[in-house]
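R.M. (postdoc): so does anyone remember the format we settled on? I'll just put the structure tokens first.
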């Protein structure tokens, strides 16, 4: 009987190693494709606030465009699980790639499940990437940072992991607007596919305290929001010295809800 249990443990261990290896293969293959695209189409301007701490960490940034999670992956040297809108996982090709690469689906109707999945990943020593505005950033009068959801701070408090704030900026006139169906509703997505694109990664933000203290969690979320905004402005300043992209003529479209995501 003991031998049988040992054989079962070896079997599950081998299966786990196979799944992990396959996941890594899909992940790094996807990153390689993204890197190639970025080299051909973007002028990436990346600035790091210093060396990254070892161990699990959470990269949390503003979300001006739908393409931000993809480009963030190209500048991170360590494997990072992105927490993204569950609707992406329903797309025929992209959804399968995201699932096999180990990224985490965020269903707005079941946020607790995504929160627990994120905490489990951190406790296994893995990195997370998240866009805590819960949707695309407001760009009506320049790129802003909306009020953050508190999930990122809750995960950091519970897992004891630092948050690395990230500020994205790119010319608004270089964005492509597309109407897509997400969750049965028509929304406007924003794609940035060519031009100058700046990313600034800040110093680690360590949070401590009681995860059940709502006032503390909200205060920490507001501080994180300020840090992300400041970094996005640093990204904007680095792009300011260059001539703006030529404005593209776009037909006025009927106002639609903005894409919702993590």
């Amino acid at each position: 009987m003991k031998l049988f249990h040992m054989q079962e443990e070896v079997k599950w261990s081998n299966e786990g190693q196979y799944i992990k290896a396959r996941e890594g293969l899909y992940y790094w293959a996807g990153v390689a494709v993204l890197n190639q695209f970025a080299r051909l189409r973007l002028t990436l301007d990346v600035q790091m606030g210093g060396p990254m701490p070892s161990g699990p960490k959470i990269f949390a940034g503003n979300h001006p465009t739908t393409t931000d999670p993809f480009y963030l992956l190209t500048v991170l040297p360590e494997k990072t699980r992105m927490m993204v809108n569950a609707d992406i996982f329903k797309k025929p090709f992209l959804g399968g790639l995201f699932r096999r690469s180990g990224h985490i689906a965020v269903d707005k109707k079941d946020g607790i499940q995504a929160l627990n999945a994120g905490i489990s990943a951190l406790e296994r020593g893995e990195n997370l990437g998240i866009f805590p505005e819960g949707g695309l950033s407001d760009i009506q009068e320049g790129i802003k940072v909306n009020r953050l959801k508190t999930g990122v701070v809750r995960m950091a408090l519970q897992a004891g992991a630092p948050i690395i704030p990230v500020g994205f900026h790119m010319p608004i006139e270089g964005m492509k607007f597309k109407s897509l169906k997400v969750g049965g509703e028509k929304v406007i997505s924003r794609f940035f596919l060519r031009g100058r694109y700046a990313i600034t990664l800040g110093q680690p933000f360590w949070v401590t305290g009681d995860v059940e203290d709502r006032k503390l969690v909200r205060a920490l979320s507001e501080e994180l929001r300020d840090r992300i905004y400041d970094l996005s402005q640093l990204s904007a300043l680095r792009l300011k010295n260059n001539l703006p992209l030529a404005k593209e003529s776009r037909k006025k479209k009927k106002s639609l809800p903005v894409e919702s995501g993590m």
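R.M.: ...and that's the designed sequence above, right after the tokens. Also worth knowing: The mean pLDDT is 86. The chain is about 40% helix and 20% strand.
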